[in-house]
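[recover] target loaded
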């Protein structure tokens, strides 16, 4: 009897799963394995919101496998050590895994290959599982990755993505392979009630429902903060409960006029992943230094805390930061705005903001988070690195009647229309009744400081 191990990482699904398909095609029995990796925890990446979503994903994966005659094996510890141990227990010759992107995932892959080879086993690494197109599949002349999105999008769009695979009908697991108990979201404290539910079943349900009701309007509504009309598929794409190749294919099949605008966003995800795969250090270091000497010290810390608490006195910034705390998720327009406010208006290091996001975001993702923060801070791939978003202008444009702001900042209830974006302009008596902070900083002062810092005054 031949046995293979499939190590699930950021691909917690049965549909369109090339490593699982390859293992099933080449062995009589397969061990579907997930390791609660000490290395991920040590890197401070196991924030409660994502741990809760992950617990849902593992429970659903186990249930789906049981429906097919199998089950999920969960172990904890060093991923490499645990995979070798399970492979030895099962007498497996081959181990299948999806290609990783981050520096951590790349190092883990190398260590795993070496450790397995020492035991006479083989590691098979499968591309285009975590992204729609593998990093490096398209490159510009003379470089190993694209540093600008638009030409990448052009090349990416011209590529044919592989056809998504169906889920297997039967998965046979060898007897006698022990598993730790599945983690549960119940024991995790401090997670918001509104946190999204994880799992492949939920991801597929959401994709189907969203495609039916919203996709056609995506282009005109994706920036409308109050409408909340984006897909909210980001945690499913992060944990791989949905396959990006399948999401693209399903969007393009009868997706209507919004489909290509939506597919473009999936391409942004691939874009950041191919940058990180080629430059893993960009998770910490400036991709393109602007020689910033970011503010530090007590005042900067207090202002950062006000930003985290949603008490900057700028309603759009505060609404978005409170949405993050209450849902573990934030609308993209909000993310752009609060990141610009922290890095450019307050001139605080992008790493401080990125860390806070990673502590709370249910979709917190090294490639998407760190590189979007760098993009917004102007140290990344933005071709207009010194632009600064004005929270009042952005509010009037993307939340013109103030619905989004009032949803998250109840202190401003009763203030209608665009006035909600400038509460400091209300009449004296109206203003004195508000329990809402004065602006933390004059936007013009922030802008002048930023321009000086970047040598553009
Ligand atoms: P939709 O608009 O429905 O888009 C569909 C999918 O496309 C998303 O689920 C996502 O996977 C991808 N996508 C959309 N916009 C982007 C983008 N700008 N870059 C990369 N992929 C994108 N996204 C994350 O998944 N994880 C993060 O940790 C993360 N941090 C961010 C930090 C900042 C400062 C900024 C500006 C953006 C960040 N994003 C991150 C990107 C984007 O904001 C979210 O992917 C999006 O808001 C998720 O909502 P949605 O699923 O409804 O998106």
């Amino acid at each position: 009897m031949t046995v293979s191990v499939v190590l699930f990482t950021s691909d917690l699904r049965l549909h369109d799963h090339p490593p699982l398909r390859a293992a099933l095609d080449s062995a009589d029995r397969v061990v579907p394995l997930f390791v609660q990796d000490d290395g991920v925890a040590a890197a401070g990446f196991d924030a409660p919101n994502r741990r809760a979503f992950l617990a849902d994903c593992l429970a659903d994966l186990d249930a789906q496998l049981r429906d097919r005659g199998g089950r999920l094996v969960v172990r904890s510890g060093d991923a490499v050590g645990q995979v070798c141990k399970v492979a030895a227990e099962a007498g497996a010759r081959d181990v299948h895994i999806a290609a990783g992107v981050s520096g951590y995932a790349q190092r883990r892959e190398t260590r795993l290959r070496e450790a397995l080879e020492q035991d006479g086993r083989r590691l098979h690494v499968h591309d285009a599982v975590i992204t729609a197109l593998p990093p490096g599949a398209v490159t510009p002349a003379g470089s190993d990755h694209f540093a600008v999105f638009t030409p990448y999008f052009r090349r990416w769009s011209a590529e044919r993505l592989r056809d998504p695979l169906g889920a297997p009908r039967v998965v046979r697991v060898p007897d006698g392979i022990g598993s730790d108990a599945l983690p549960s979201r119940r024991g995790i404290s401090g997670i918001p009630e509104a946190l999204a539910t994880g799992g492949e079943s939920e991801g597929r349900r959401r994709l189907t429902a969203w495609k039916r009701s919203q996709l056609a309007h995506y282009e005109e509504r994706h920036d409308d903060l109050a409408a909340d009309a984006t897909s909210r598929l980001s945690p499913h794409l992060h944990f791989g409960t949905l396959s990006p190749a399948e999401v693209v294919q399903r969007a393009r099949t009868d997706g209507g006029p919004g489909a290509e605008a939506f597919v473009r966003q999936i391409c942004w995800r691939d874009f950041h992943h191919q940058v990180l795969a080629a430059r893993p250090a960009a998770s910490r270091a400036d991709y393109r230094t602007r020689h910033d000497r970011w503010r530090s010290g007590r005042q900067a810390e207090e202002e950062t805390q006000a930003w985290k608490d949603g008490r900057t006195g700028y309603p759009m910034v505060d609404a978005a930061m409170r949405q993050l705390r209450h849902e573990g998720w934030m609308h993209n327009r909000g993310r752009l705005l609060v990141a610009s406010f922290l890095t450019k208006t307050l001139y605080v290091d992008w790493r401080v903001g990125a860390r806070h996001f990673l502590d709370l975001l249910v979709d917190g993702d090294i490639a998407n988070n760190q590189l979007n923060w760098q993009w917004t801070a102007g140290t990344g791939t933005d071709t207009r690195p010194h632009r600064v978003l004005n929270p009042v202008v952005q509010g009037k444009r993307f939340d013109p009647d103030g619905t989004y702001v009032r949803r998250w900042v109840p202190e401003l209830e009763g203030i209608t229309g665009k006035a909600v974006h400038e509460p400091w302009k209300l009449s004296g008596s109206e203003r004195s009744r508000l329990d809402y902070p004065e602006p933390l900083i004059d936007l013009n002062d922030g802008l002048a400081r930023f321009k000086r810092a970047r040598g553009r005054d």
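[recover] notes: The longest helix spans residues 48-67.
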